């Protein structure tokens, strides 16, 4: 029997979206020199607001404001910087509902996720790094570690506010000032964060937000006044940025793509594993760099596990992201939908078997049904390339050694999951998996205390935890 759910829409009225937004430079909202662009709600294709575009002169102004603010901000005692960060964290909690709604409208992710995962983690990140601000001398980076200066930060659209928090909280705690560029399809929560900086009384110029397309990001990372570059996004752009800063003095951290293996052994608790597989690849529509996009299942349990997975997927509710019962929301943009569609078509053309549960997709907006491919070979594009969508590729293995070999057979190395009852097997696997994070009997679990980052083409540097401080200190 299937339970039907009555509509449970979250209210849009908790957020007031302005018709247009400026850049946030030196504590004030200002016009941009480039051509303003629109950001849409991907679930309806409705225009939400017009947003200013920063050109090179605007980027230059923002870097100059950050440079000036650095003199006083870096000279403050850590206890004083901590007060601002604690204040920001508390305002985020107070405005949590508004931020969650704004994130869901601009990004397309289910309100259940922005409300219960994204925004709480954003506040937690600021609380966590506020706690470090006056303890940097005890962090293991020398007795008096110094900040780097002005940080240029470029972030993607999949976790707009969370990626902002991962970048801004440690930078400010360590005494740096920042210029951040949000993704062009999801600028609204970063601009709400600019308001929060004003509300918290943060000194002008400590945080600057410049909106615009890739060209704005390119101008920012290339600016000679920048001391540190932090980027999260695609491996292709990451490579370009690495080339831009090569040979210079800028410190760089790159958080790029992934193609994680989620490995289920025959002794795994199956129902729990099914939940973990679903969370691993259908959380945030699969727009997750550490998504468990390759399911590696022990051959003897393949049929049983896939039957349970299909039953579970038939109960996923795909649709209106503002409905509190929705599990899978909208694809973030037409461009991303086109990329997913292209790779899925390649999967079929290469001979894998495609399956989706029956689901009615809304007529307007960008949608893709949860999809599972079986009969996948390691050489298929859907097994090698990051789909960055709700698409799971299923492969099998016979021995733990074969599972390790297949899991590591990727240019990426961001995360992995292991499902088994045996603690010794978890440790044996974790030792051999070339992935920055290995989850055991869980997946996509985040905590500000835990460092996050990749091997190989997934990038370099760590964000989160004590390790995350190192990226913003002169050590
Ligand atoms: P992208 O790398 O193009 O964009 C990420 C950010 O970089 C955006 O703010 C963008 O404006 C900016 N940017 C683009 N070109 C730039 C340049 N030359 N210099 C500086 N900044 C630049 O990513 P995308 O197009 O949004 O997504 C494409 C793919 O990236 C996805 O399919 C996925 O594989 C990957 N991705 C990974 C993550 C992650 O968390 N690791 C997040 C989003 C996307
Ligand atoms: Mg948008």
Automatic annotation (TrEMBL):
Ranges where the Aldehyde dehydrogenase domain occurs: 32-474
The entry's keywords: Oxidoreductase
Claim: Oxidoreductase is one of the keywords in the record: yes
InterPro entries in the record: Ald_DH/histidinol_DH, Ald_DH_C, Ald_DH_CS_GLU, Ald_DH_N, Aldehyde_DH_dom
Entry-linked Pfam families: Aldedh
Residues at the active site: 255
A GO term for molecular function: oxidoreductase activity, acting on the aldehyde or oxo group of donors, NAD or NADP as acceptor
Family annotation (PANTHER family): ALDEHYDE DEHYDROGENASE-RELATED
Family membership noted in the UniProt record: Belongs to the aldehyde dehydrogenase family.
Name assigned to this protein: Betaine-aldehyde dehydrogenase
Lineage, top ranks: Bacteria, Bacillati, Actinomycetota, Actinomycetes, Streptosporangiales
């Amino acid at each position: 029997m299937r339970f039907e759910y009555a509509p449970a829409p979250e209210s849009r009225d908790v957020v007031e979206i302005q018709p247009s937004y400026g850049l946030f430079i030196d504590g004030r909202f200002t016009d941009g020199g480039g051509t303003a662009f629109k950001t849409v709600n991907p679930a309806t294709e409705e225009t939400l607001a017009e947003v200013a575009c920063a050109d090179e002169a605007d980027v230059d102004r923002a870097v100059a404001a950050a440079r000036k603010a650095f003199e006083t901000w870096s000279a403050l005692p850590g206890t004083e910087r901590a007060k601002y960060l604690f204040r920001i964290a508390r305002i985020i909690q107070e405005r949590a509902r508004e931020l969650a709604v704004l994130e869901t409208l601009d990004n397309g992710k289910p309100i259940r996720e922005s409300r219960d995962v994204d925004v709480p983690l954003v506040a937690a990140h600021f609380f966590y790094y506020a706690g470090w601000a006056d303890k940097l001398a005890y962090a293991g980076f020398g007795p008096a570690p110094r900040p780097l200066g002005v940080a240029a930060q470029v972030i993607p659209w999949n976790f707009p506010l969370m990626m902002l928090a991962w970048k801004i909280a440690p930078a400010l705690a360590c005494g740096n000032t920042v210029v951040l560029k949000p993704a062009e399809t999801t600028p609204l929560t970063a601009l709400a964060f600019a308001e929060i900086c004003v509300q918290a009384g943060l000194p002008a110029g400590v945080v600057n937000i410049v909106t615009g397309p890739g060209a704005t990001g390119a101008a920012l990372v290339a600016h000679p006044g920048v001391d540190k570059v932090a980027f999260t996004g695609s491996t292709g752009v990451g490579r370009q940025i690495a080339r831009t800063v090569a040979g210079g003095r800028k410190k760089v951290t790159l958080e790029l793509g992934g193609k994680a293996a989620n490995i289920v052994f025959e002794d795994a608790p199956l129902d729990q594993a099914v939940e973990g597989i679903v969370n691993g690849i259908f959380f945030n529509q699969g727009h997750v760099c550490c998504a468990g996009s390759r399911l590696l299942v022990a051959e003897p349990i393949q049929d049983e596990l896939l039957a349970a997975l299909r039953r579970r997927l038939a109960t996923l509710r795909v649709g209106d992201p503002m409905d509190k019962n929705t599990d899978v929301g909208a694809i973030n943009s037409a461009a991303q939908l086109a990329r997913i569609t292209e790779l899925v078509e390649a999967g079929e053309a290469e001979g894998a078997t495609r399956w989706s549960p029956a689901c009615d997709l809304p007529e307007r907006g960008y949608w893709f049904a949860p999809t599972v491919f079986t009969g996948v070979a390691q050489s298929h594009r859907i097994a090698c390339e990051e789909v960055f969508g709700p698409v799971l590729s299923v492969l099998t293995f016979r021995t733990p050694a074969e599972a390790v070999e297949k899991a590591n057979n990727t240019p990426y190395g961001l995360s992995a999951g292991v499902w088994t009852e045996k603690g010794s097997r978890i440790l044996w696997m974790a030792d051999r998996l070339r992935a920055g994070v290995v989850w055991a009997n869980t997946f996509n679990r985040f905590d500000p205390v835990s460092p996050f980052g990749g091997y190989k083409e997934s990038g370099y540097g760590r964000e989160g935890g004590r390790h995350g401080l190192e990226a913003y200190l002169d050590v």
